[in-house]
């Protein structure tokens, strides 16, 4: 049996096709309405218009503590000609206005004479400090329309208007079906090739976050008959079924054919990245039920929920989808995008100078941490090939702008010390974030030059002088740039090898061995420059090294490749070797520095970082990683 895979179509066209298929199949356009006490209705959507049953306030009342007076009796009152009143009434805020009185004078503006009269030194206009009947709400007025999602202030207004019960849409029910022979429940000890069922937990939480009731079934094996039965069973208790994995066109990808067999297949393949193999359709029944086939990669699954499930569930409640606020930001580095698909890119945000800066996170569909660390979403439309560094882009906010004001933006070479610093800063103050982007030392210095980061991490070796970083500053910034360079650490670089060093590597000269598979760092990375320098000293042609052109963007990426057996060795820091249980063949000890504009030394955003570098506990934590010396940590070397 072949998969009914169709060409990718634009997201909006896919949403329309799904809506049309649901209507044709007889899926209910709305979930049922239920009556709830007003105090329990927050977050629900009104199923009918709400009309005020009484006015608020229901009587003329005092708006201030003071005395009630007849305004006509205060005419002519002034500092030089005060008016003495015998007839007045003492009132507190909220008291009904006594009959015959039409104004209130604040207590602090009244002087009482020894004989009990009130002395006023200013005339009072009618209805001063008086809340008139119906000032807030008038009986019989429209309070809330149908299709309004209720907030705390809304239910308070309803209660004030005498509404004690509300007719609202019940919570939509979402049933999530995880599939796959390799999927195991969260908490299970995993064997080779087995994957924890984190997607179900994530999608259920996304559904709950927007006000739905979510239920996850047991894991279903890769058997089309079993999956079809699970889909039909779930549809009987759901307003939306989400089927996880199997939505692509592989041998065990059955989602599209299951949906076609269980009801109607509307869409298979949407022009979005990540997440293009999404499946949209309906499950036959009385009534029919919408079904969404979500890709198995976590980033794709989460994005699929945002683009397709969230609008569908909002429509079932008769409400508009919840929209996140947006902002404009300068892109911290070049962002390429393939023509033909909307490219959803998660970004970190920070304010550098007067601009919000967006740093793209890793974009692979399986990189769950990109969801964790994201502050915003950047959509590159299908017809755009990408954006240049520094270009203004529009970002959908996942965190409030106030939350990113104290974000330290670090761009440049990767180092584990920055991760330790980020954790320590957040532990000390939850409002502080250190967001680092790994683009290599050279890329970091260029980003600093262009005003796209606070600090650049660098360990660029100048082969001509043997110095690190400093010789590059005049070339990149010009000879008169006011820069500061702060030493972060010294660190050991060497060859990362499998435990026990089974190939018996002793140094750089061994990289030319024909049986050796090397993994390199990207161009512009200080580690790449160090390797080229060491090769040059030995007269070794890089093209003779198998794997020289194969690149990773972090030391941990190099270590992971060696640990997984995809490479035999790569140049990296000792801490990365220790993190993956690898052995280490030393090559060089080098400084790793933070470069910044000199004015940044007094920037309050960076102040917590400088304070952290002085702490003995932090330095001890760094040295425990292995291969680090903090003897000069925090010292300004320029």
UniProtKB/TrEMBL annotation:
Keyword Protein transport: no
Cofactor annotation: Mg(2+)
EC annotation from Swiss-Prot or TrEMBL: 2.10.1.1
Role of this protein: Catalyzes the insertion of molybdate into adenylated molybdopterin with the concomitant release of AMP.
A GO molecular function held by the record: molybdopterin molybdotransferase activity
Catalytic activity, reaction form: adenylyl-molybdopterin + molybdate = Mo-molybdopterin + AMP + H(+)
Family per similarity comment: Belongs to the MoeA family.
GO BP, sorted A to Z: Mo-molybdopterin cofactor biosynthetic process
Pathway annotation: Cofactor biosynthesis; molybdopterin biosynthesis
Coiled coil as UniProt keyword: no
Domain MoaB/Mog residue range list: 175-315
Protein name, as recorded: Molybdopterin molybdenumtransferase
Organism: Pseudonocardia cypriaca
EC main group: transferase
Keywords: Magnesium, Metal-binding, Molybdenum, Molybdenum cofactor biosynthesis, Transferase
NCBIfam families hit by this protein: molyb_syn (TIGR00177), PRK14498.1 (NF011068)
GO cellular component: cytosol
Pfam (any one): PBP_like
